[in-house]
Amino acid sequence: MLLALFLPALLAAAIGFLFFALVRPPPAPPGLATDGAVVLTGSPGRLARGRDVLEQGLASRLLVSGVDRKVRPEELRRAMALSPEQFRRVDLGFVAENTRANAAEVAVWVQANRFRTVRIITSDFHARRSRLEIAARLPDDVGIVVDAVPSDPDLHTLLVEYGKYLAAWLLIGLG
Questions:
Q1: What is the number of other CB atoms lying within 10 angstroms of the CB of residue 65?
Q2: Which of 5, 7, 12, 163 is 20 to 30 A (C-alpha) from 50?
Q3: Which H or E run contains 62?
Q4: pLDDT in tens, 30-68
Q5: Fold for domain 25-174?
Q6: Model confidence over 84-102: pLDDT tens digits?
Q7: Domain ranges in the chain?
Q8: Cα–Cα distance between 155 and 21 in angstroms, integer?
Q9: Residue 86 contacts residue 54 (beta carbons within 8 Å)
Q10: Using an 8 Å Cβ cutoff, are 94 and 32 in contact?
Q11: Are 110 and 123 in contact (CB under 8 A)?
């Protein structure tokens, strides 16, 4: 009897995980512009994508959220291969240490700049949870574009991220 109650939930979670793992969000459409763009620090390719968005004029400003406090702005500028002029359009967020704190940092930045649209640059496996957390903190009339950087996560990474996504979904839904 107990198994009959948990089996449908377990099956739904397994199907959800398969979808989560196999159908990851893509990069934003080429040429799509937003008012601002945010790089959530972490895995490879995110900073380079942020640089490309800035260089192509697809956003007026770029926030790099979750920068380690030991990193100097000049080090980050060089790592991103941006000129000093381009780097003047980059804001650094040193407060966030996790996705929830990234979302809070992004919300403050978007509101301070009065942006109507924002691009979220993160890894494809992290994109759904990032969007969920950020959308929960922004006004409904702010458009969010996910710009997922393709990656090759292992099974463990996908399982952990799926668990975090479900937890965030539940917490936001209950809140």
A1: 27
A2: 163
A3: strand 61-65
A4: 999 999 999 999 888 999 999 999 999 999 999 999 999
A5: Rossmann fold (3.40.50)
A6: 999 999 999 999 999 999 9
A7: 25-174
A8: 8
A9: yes
A10: no
A11: no
| Three-state secondary structure of the chain | CHHHHHHHHHHHHHHHHHHHHHCCCCCCCCCCCCCEEEEECCCCCHHHHHHHHHHCCCCCEEEEECCCCCCCHHHHHHHHCCCHHHHCCEEEECCCCCHHHHHHHHHHHHHHHCCCEEEEEEECCCHHHHHHHHHCCCCCCCEEEEEEECCCCCHHHHHHHHHHHHHHHHHHHHC
Task: Decide the pairing of beta strands 36-40 and 61-65.
Answer: parallel
Tokens of 41: 């620090």
Instruction: Measure the CA–CA gap between 34 and 129, rounded to whole angstroms.
Output: 20
Structure tokens at 24: 């990851």
Tokens of 107: 């919300």
Give the DSSP H/E element, type plus range, for residue 54. Answer: helix 46-55
